[in-house]
Structures are given as C-alpha cells and as structure tokens.
Design goal:
The chain has one domain: P-loop containing nucleotide triphosphate hydrolases (Rossmann fold). The protein is built from seven helices and nine strands; from the N terminus they run βαββαββαβαβαβαβα. Helix 5 links the parallel strand 7 and strand 8. The model has no long low-confidence stretch (mean pLDDT about 95).
C-alpha cells in the first residue's frame, strides 16, 4: 500500500506525521521532491528506527521554495513521469511538498503525484484560526479529483470545536492528534506511532 501525506499548507507537520506513520506501519519513507536544506529525509532518518528505510528523492533542489520555483532556479522542469516509486515490498509513506495545489510545473500540482501513484491520502490539518476553511477546501479539492482520503491527522493544541466540525463536515476519520511538543525526539515519534497503530487497528485498516 502507498500512503501520500499532504497537508492544508506549508509547515503543517507533514514530516513529523510521515515519520510517525512510517514507524507505526513498518513502512518505507520517500519524499519525491525536496526543495531546500536540511532535507526532510534526513529528519525522518534521525527520528525513526533503522526499520524505516528512507529512499532517495526523485528531485533534490537547493532553493527553499515552491517546487516549480526551485526547479526553475536550477533551469530544470519537474516531469511527473520521472517520479517513479521505489521498489519495496513494504508499505510506502510518500511525503508531499507544501499543500495539495502547490505547483510542480506550469501544469501539474503536488496532488497529481498521489493520483499518478494511486496512493491514498492522509491529510495533516494543523489547528489555527482559518484551518476549518483550509481543511474543508483541501478535502473538496481531493474529492473533485477523485483521490481517496484515508483520514485526518490534527497537529497542534486541541480545539474541539474546529476538530469536530471538520470531521462532521468531511465524514473522514481522525487518525491521530499530535499535540504541541517542546522538542521532537525519537521517543516522541515512538509514542505517537503507538497511538497511530492502535487507532489504525480500531478502524480496521
């Protein structure tokens, strides 16, 4: 199985969520497009156990910007056809770049990667004023493209009203709630991976 971790915006907690999911499912990790340093792949390597194999990026770009912008800075164009998933017999956690409609080039967006790879989406929603609108718009865009969504991970201080209305309006299950942590360590990843694993089993996945 392939799971595509995307979010309602930039810096929403995709890498943190991806590390947790990969460790919980005993999955491999792959970020097809990385723009800027340090890389999210390095962070996942540092935070997870050796059982989580981290695959090389399809595009490793220097400029910390939207993929289309970072690629243009290096005079290249991201080609969706060259984003080929690595061979693995394990589940594969694929981390996107930014939000779902972030451009890869003049035609394709991040969510087109999930569609091409036939991966199920796990959507990270970080809780802030305005996140209800951004989350529901993201879910609507995914539905419009007929992309299957496995569930939602909330990230940040609890806001029951926001969480409840998002789950009610979307009809999607909550997979995990990552609270605000003072420091992200391998122990934190292990803690949340156990919670994720328990919820995953409760949902019959």
């Amino acid at each position: 199985m392939k799971y595509f971790v995307t979010a309602i915006g930039t810096d929403s907690g995709k890498t943190l969520a991806s590390a947790i999911i990969a460790q919980a499912l005993g999955a491999d990790y792959w970020k097809p497009i990385q723009a800027g340093q340090p890389t999210d792949s390095d962070a996942v390597k540092r935070l997870t156990t050796s059982e989580v194999f981290v695959h090389k990026e399809a595009y490793l770009l220097n400029k910390p910007a939207s993929p289309h912008d970072a690629a243009k800075a290096e005079k290249i164009e991201i080609d969706l056809k060259k984003i080929i998933p690595p061979n693995t017999e394990k589940p594969l956690v694929i981390e996107g770049a930014g939000g779902i409609l972030v451009p890869l080039n003049d035609t394709d967006t991040v969510i087109d990667i999930a569609s091409q790879l036939e991966a199920e989406v796990i959507l990270v929603s970080n809780l802030y004023l305005g996140s209800i609108n951004h989350t529901l718009l993201s879910i609507e865009a995914l539905a419009h493209r007929k992309v299957k969504v496995k569930g939602i991970i909330f990230n940040g201080d609890s806001n029951p009203e926001s969480e409840n209305i998002i789950l009610s309006k979307s009809g999607l299950p909550q997979l995990l709630h990552i609270k605000t942590e003072s420091k992200i360590t391998s122990d934190v990843i292990e803690h949340y991976s156990e919670l994720f694993k328990r919820r995953w089993h409760e949902l019959g996945y």
